[in-house]
Specification:
Blueprint (H helix, E strand, L loop, with lengths): L50 H20 L9 E3 L5 H11 L4 E5 L4 E6 L5 E7 L5 E8 L5 H8 L17 H14 L7 E4 L7 H11 L4 E5 L4 E6 L5 E7 L5 E8 L10 H20 L1
Antiparallel strand pairs: 1-5, 2-3, 2-7, 3-4, 4-5, 6-10, 7-8, 8-9, 9-10
Length: 290
């Protein structure tokens, strides 16, 4: 397996420093629950739209909509629309029409994937480039999450990790690592995620630094802005992810490790996908009248 260097990865795992653990009489700074439901905000279209570009964009989005209606969510063969043949003006209009949603991802490898959810949950813009930055493919995928987020992370990972002897000061991290290794070794397809909440454990800075070093960094990082700022980072241990929530000051307030195919905060849900079909149909009608 190819090892990934933390120095080569754009967003490092952040460990809590001194003072990150609450005092006995101090309340934990939990991530606040949303006070209200977010409402769908359609993207902003340009003031002037070229008729030919509009016709191309509408035809492309209508094809996507038809494929989404015909597909059963969660089954193989999800809708994919190749945008490479489109001219620049039509592509720009499609990008404007789809907007940017709350989840984005970057996946490294022989080629690099940049993935951005649109304002329509479960509709993703996926751009693949070579190491020189040359664009190799440009597409729309409609699914819970583009599959390569999971497959590339797993291909670059190890089934087990031989941990070095922890240095002085490390206390509870070896027990956490053993728990993760056991969860990975005994995991069955479709099982619930095994979550270790480091925020609630007596972990000192040496513990956290050792875990970061031993677990390593995988090729994938995902950012989600759904409920606060969440950073999901693949480790070098198979199916093991850092899931970390930050407040508006970029202070770590919830720090977990999850053993699962993909943490639940990242992919789109079936209900949201169904809503996106209805909203996309309405938005195409708006685009036709623009």
């Amino acid at each position: 397996m190819k090892a990934w260097s933390a120095n080569a990865f754009p967003i490092p795992v952040v460990a809590a420093g001194p003072g990150s653990q609450p005092e006995e009489d101090e309340a934990l700074d939990y991530l606040p629950l949303p006070s209200g439901m977010d409402t769908f905000a359609p993207p902003r279209l340009p003031d002037h739209i070229d008729p030919a570009s509009r016709a191309t964009a509408v035809a492309t989005l209508q094809g996507l909509l038809a494929a989404m209606r015909a597909w059963t969510f969660g089954t193989p063969g999800h809708p994919v629309v190749d945008l490479a043949p489109l001219d620049g003006a039509s592509l720009a209009l499609i990008n404007d029409a789809l907007g940017q949603g709350e989840v984005s991802a970057r996946v490294l490898g022989e080629t690099e994937l940049r993935i951005q959810e649109t304002v329509f949950a479960g509709i993703w813009r996926v751009v693949e480039t070579d190491r020189g930055g040359r664009r190799l493919s440009d597409r729309i995928e409609a699914c819970a999450m583009p599959a390569e987020v999971i497959t590339r992370s797993l291909e670059a990972a190890q089934a087990a990790i031989a941990a070095p002897t922890p240095p002085q000061g490390v206390m509870n991290a070896p027990a956490v690592l053993n728990e993760l290794l056991h969860a990975v070794a005994t995991r069955r397809p479709g099982a619930a995620a095994h979550i270790v909440n480091l925020t609630l454990l007596p972990m000192n800075p040496a513990d956290l630094a050792w875990l970061v070093e031993v677990l390593g960094v995988g090729p994938t990082v995902i950012l989600s802005r759904g409920y606060g700022n969440c950073r999901i980072t693949a480790t070098a241990l198979a199916r093991t992810w850092w899931v970390q929530y930050f407040n508006s000051a970029d202070t770590l307030i919830l720090n977990t490790l999850e053993v699962t195919e993909l943490p639940d905060v990242a992919p789109a849900a079936a209900d949201d996908f169904g809503d996106s079909i209805a909203r996309l149909e309405e938005w195409i009608a708006t685009l036709c009248d623009a």
